[in-house]
Amino acid sequence: MSEPEQGGAEVASEGASALQASLANLAHVLGGGCGSLQLWVDDDLGLHPRAVQGEPGTVADRRMARQCCLLSSVQVEANRAAVPLRLSDRRVGAVLVQFASAPTSSQVQHLQAWVEARLDALDTWLVDERLTRLSGVARRAEALRVALAAAHDLEQVASLSQGFAALHRALGPLLVAENFFVVLLDERREWLHFPYHCDQYDHNWEPISFRQGRLQGSMSAIIVAAGRVLRGSSEELLEQAGHGDTKDDHLYGPNASDWLGVPMVLGAEVSGAMVVQSYQPGFRFGEDDPAVLTMLAEASAAALYRRRVRETLERMVAERTAELQQARDAAEHTLSQLRAMQKQLVMSEKMASLGQLVAGVAHEVNTPLGVALTAASLLDGQTVALERSFSDGRLTRSEMQRFVNVARDATGMVLRNLERAGRLVHSFKQVSVDQTVDARRRFDLSGFLQELLESSKSMWKGRSVEVSVQCSPGIELDSFPGTLGQVLINLIQNALTHAFAAQAAGEIGLSANTLADDQVEIRVRDNGVGVPEELRDKIFEPFFTTRRNQGGTGLGLHIVFNLVTQTLGGSIELVQGSAGTDFRLCLPRKAPGGVATSDPAQSKQA
User: Is pTM beyond 0.85 here?
Assistant: First the structure.
């Protein structure tokens, strides 16, 4: 345990006369250029400081002192400098010095050092000066106010020994407190510590065991254990406690003529004690002294409790902050891992999609190529047999006719399947959208949809299906009409293929209107059989089809999805809960990238 401050010995080292002499000698410290010096102290409201030492102050002096007190900072103006005083009773003051000329920074620093070195003496002198202006009950009330303020300050002071030293100085005007110490019980209630002590004779202030102290006659331990005021000479108190045989044992210090100890109580818990004692023969503390000391002890106990709570809260906040920082670091580390994993997942999904595409290509193209290869092999075998018969001179007219029939069927089969393979390869190429194929231009959406409808009527010719268009007028797009037309044709073809039976009646509707943020909504609806709930999330996947045995490749809606999201810069979704099938496209009025040309139709009209 570090050695506590021996603060009381210096409390009154500089009295009023010594202070005045010290102020007078300050001129020597600051050099020959130092003139008058004033000591100012603020009032209770902190608004009107008054000069309590030195020459009478002018209006300018008062204004500068007030500024120094309010800002609690050094003020330099013309040939004057003011240094703030931070006083123990929560007031402030100022030391104002007038120089022969503008003070140098070195002189101001010397003045600050002089004030800091004599702050306790200045504080004590100012308290005494204030008390001398009061009398009787008012004086005592003022002294008690100062002492209570010092007790309350224990909650915030940086060092408890310094806080108790300030309280000791404040006790002087209230009672004889030349010998004063504070004892505190630790949180485990095992040891008694002495954070502050000032005694004429006793110099042993090591911590003592709470239990052993009670057994061996320590008055500090007895008062903390009893939790009540103890007053009397050391001999009397030891006799009352049953330790009269130890009154000549100086283990716990010399015997006092009068010993006054009060417990520091908060609620029902005793946390320590405050003790004053006198070794002057025949001395007795006053009748009011126990009440005064008790009041200060209870105020100190409350302040120490608040200090412990604040320190506990600050420790908890620091620990919680550290935990949160650790959690944040862990979360950031996890997030970074997740981002890395996400990149790997995206890459793996791309590779899986590529693998699926290759597998789909192999599967779809393999069938027509296999049929063509079989037909070609058959034709090759028939050709070899024909050549052999011709070489042997055994070729008959009927054999030649059979060969011609087989060749016609085989070549037809080869051509049909190679054409199918070519169409499949063309569809596969559409999966990777070539943005350079379609020209970008500005066009009117309503006219475009009408033209698209007129040019596509052959798709549903001969069927009981009605296709209609509803579009708000005046919607102009800066986009790729060829790509948009391909998307809409594919969606109409999808409805014709999947929504209605071959001879069933039905309706397909195209509608368009504007949305906020320069967006356009296009809907393609039908009143057909719709899409089963379990298949809705799969319809845009490549090679997903419900008609593979009927020639479907599963690439139609996948191509539509890529065209809408990549070339047109929009989105497409299958609307939930609608009867039949309802595709909703959201497209920007201005497609990303490129520069549009003018609408040829509009140019002709112009």
Answer: no
